[in-house]
Amino acid sequence: QMWEEAIALGKELAEQYENEMFDYEQLSDLLRKQAQFYENIVKVIRPKPDYFAVGYYGQGFPTFIRNKVFIYRGKEYERREDFEARLLTQFPNAEKMKTTSPPGDDIKNSSGQYIQCFTVKPKLDLPSKFHRPVSEQIVSFYRVNEVQRFEYSRPVRKGEKNPDNEFANMWIERTIYVTAYKLPGILRWFEVKSVFMVEISPLENAIETMQLTNDKINNMVQQHLNDPNLPINPLSMLLNGIVDPAVMGGFTNYEKAFFTEKYMHEHPEDHDKIEKLKDLIAWQIPFLAEGIRIHGEKVTEALRPFHERMEACFRQLKDKVEKQYGVRAVVSYL
């Protein structure tokens, strides 16, 4: 299903058929295939595989993997538990580590075999040709393919715990892994060649979370616009989880943590970041409005009361946000 790669190879072949071999019959057949590949990219939803970091620690392993970390591409719909079971059958004497922290020398120098495995998130590296916003169906391929950087995030609390707002002092310790080659390649796994760590402040974490939520709504809206036959349940759960006050709490907690005079006085350097977070909150409204419009068109009569309640919650949310953070309008490429 890597149609993007097939198209690139097809262009090379087309050049041969057209200008070297003058085989127009083969050329016409190839161009028809390419047309189908382009249509597939836009219309077919492809499963996104998970990626796993695997460390082999201890002197019991062969030298080519001993005390090294590798990034593996899982199979379609493969859960971490299933991947681990598959991995451990290859090393029946190995012990599975229960922590994701890098092991000490006692583990690395021991005579045994210790395997560490956890899920990592691929980092999107969009080709430079996409210099303006494009459809999520086109971008989604690059979210899990042609990737070389992966990250693992671990929450770290600094200072005293605030029972009223856990976001205020929740930092993120993020480890970035860079592989020797892009995945997938000839192999489904490559060695990690460099590792570095960054700390994400609570405010930066809030911005990132808000951006991800907006992207998730936007992406699902685009999927439904591209394919009217998609099931409505995932859209229902996503929208309701954001607009229902009973399960909401996302940015109201951010308001309590960061939009106070006390925080602004203590962190004047964060002024631009606070404005960025406010902007993202404001942008969520038009994305939600489009999602709820689509939901209203597709909802069954049995779920109509659920939709009407969601609409009522959204109207309250919209009034509050637009009054405090201004009005935004969705641009036409949606």
TrEMBL record:
Q: Which UniProt keywords apply?
A: Guanine-nucleotide releasing factor
DOCKER domain location: 1-330
User: Which Gene Ontology biological process is one annotated for this entry?
Assistant: myoblast fusion
Matching entries from InterPro entries are given as: DOCK, DOCK_C_lobe_A, DOCK_C_lobe_C, DOCKER_dom, DOCKER_Lobe_A, DOCKER_Lobe_B, DOCKER_Lobe_C
Q: Which GO terms describe its molecular function?
A: guanyl-nucleotide exchange factor activity; small GTPase binding
* Keyword Disulfide bond among record annotations: no
What protein family is recorded?
Answer: Belongs to the DOCK family.
The protein in question is named Dedicator of cytokinesis protein 1
List the record's Gene Ontology CC terms alphabetically.
cytoplasm; plasma membrane
Task: Give any Pfam family that matches.
Answer: DHR-2_Lobe_B
Q: Which domain of life is it from?
A: Eukaryota
